[in-house]
Amino acid sequence: MSTSKFPSRKFVSVDPSKCTGCGICEYACALEKEKNNINPLRSRIRVVRMTPMFNFALACRFCKDAKCLTACPEKALSQSEQTGIIRVEEEKCKGCDWCIQACPHGGITIYSDAYARIAVACDLCDGEPKCVEFCPEEALELVGTDEEAEKRFNEALKELPAEIERLTKIIKNKDWKPLLAKAEEMSLRVSEKLESLNKKATAENENK
Ligand code: SF4
After folding, report:
1. Tens digits of per-residue pLDDT, 12-32?
2. Neighbouring residues of 45: CB distance < 8 A, sequence distance ≥ 6
3. What's this model's pTM, rounded to 2 decimal places?
């Protein structure tokens, strides 16, 4: 029997070399978690667009020493002993932001509107995260360790200067064709996923 903490820990990790910053993961998450509300501000995964060429998405990592848990003054957060998934007790959460300040991974976020201000965190959609399913670039996957997640991130970061050089050369030579072809392919993949999301949203509205 495994004695390690959170023996089934898995979390969503991004490969920034594939992520285009399209934001479909945020829409897929919001639709799944908030049902008829496809507002990406309600997403449990958040896209960070650092440069046009370096994008990534952040979600809760279910840390073994979750800083958000100890930071919460309302004891509104709890953690599964099996998976490490963080649960937010909405009645207790006051939306104070302390969990966000404490998290080193940008994994927990605050949703705020006219009616509520509460922390929200990824719960893996019962093991089948919709962000992973709908990402048009297959940039997201489930990993079990921080090392795996960091390796993907650092490798993408290492490749960035060569990628910038390659693109600079293309632009200087005005050789647009490959860039346009790539953009068109990407846009097709995004359209397909948006269409599937729209179908899902329509079906959910009809079943209400
Ligand atoms: S859906 Fe995939 S490619 Fe688009 S922003 Fe999210 S992780 Fe990046």
Report:
1. 999 999 999 999 999 999 999
2. 12, 25, 26, 29, 57, 58, 59, 122, 131
3. 0.92
